[in-house]
Amino acid sequence: MTTDEVLAGVGPRLRQMRKDRDVTLAALSETTGISVSTLSRLESGLRKPSLELLLPIARAHQVALNELVGTPSAGDPRVRSKPIVMGGRTHWPLTRQPGGLQAYKVLEPKRRQEPDPRRHEGYEWLYVLSGKLRLVLGEHDVVLTAGEAAEFDTRVPHWFGSTGEGPVEFLSLFGPQGERMHVRARPKRA
User: Fold this and answer.
1) What is the pLDDT of residues 84-101, one digit of tens each?
2) Closest CA to 170 of 133, 118, 136, 143
3) CA distance 19 to 127
4) N-to-C CA span, the chain
């Protein structure tokens, strides 16, 4: 929707809102301090709406500004992806666009596997939601538990999977061109 289309819808919306509330132009003028003629021109579309005019009208009707402007809804923000099963693991893609940084929710079943470290271009970040995730990275062999995270360059030989004690659920963010994740969390100062 273009700006002109949004602005063209404001006048009729203002008129309908005023009539739905059974308010006269004179009463609205008294409440807002905006002249009757200006309010009439706004409603008929002969005057373009501005913040100076819309803010007092929104206050008078006790509505948010976006109700007067009629901004389009953002749509359903949920990512609805079908699970992909690869090598016994279930992956739910959390990003919609191909290429670049990818995010997955992963469920690894309870199973014991012999680590088979691989290397490839990229950078990975893992965050354990539940269970225990075994990570073999170069010479390191560690177990991550719920709430723990790891990040690494995927050119280092690596492998991750269940410890064999139970299933593990984790988030994986992967950047094929070596993008690094930037966590911008700072502790609160006392």
Assistant:
1) 999 899 999 988 777 778
2) 133
3) 54
4) 47
Inter-CA distances, 178 with 124, 153, 154, 175, 183, Å: 8, 7, 8, 5, 16
Torsion of CA 102, 104, 110, 114, to 10 degrees: 0
Residues across the chain: 190
Q: How far apart are CA 140 and CA 109, in angstroms?
A: 23
65-70 average pLDDT score: 81
Whether this prediction's pTM lies above 0.85 is answered by no
Question: How far apart, in whole angstroms, are the C-alpha atoms of residue 48 and residue 10?
Answer: 9
8 A C-beta contact, residue 187 and residue 135:
no
Q: What is the CA radius of gyration of the chain?
A: 28
Q: Count Cα atoms within 13 angstroms, Cβ side, for 185.
A: 3
Which among 147, 17, 127, 133 has a CA at the least distance from the CA of 69? 17
Nearest C-alpha neighbor of 106 from the set 169, 162, 175, 158: 169
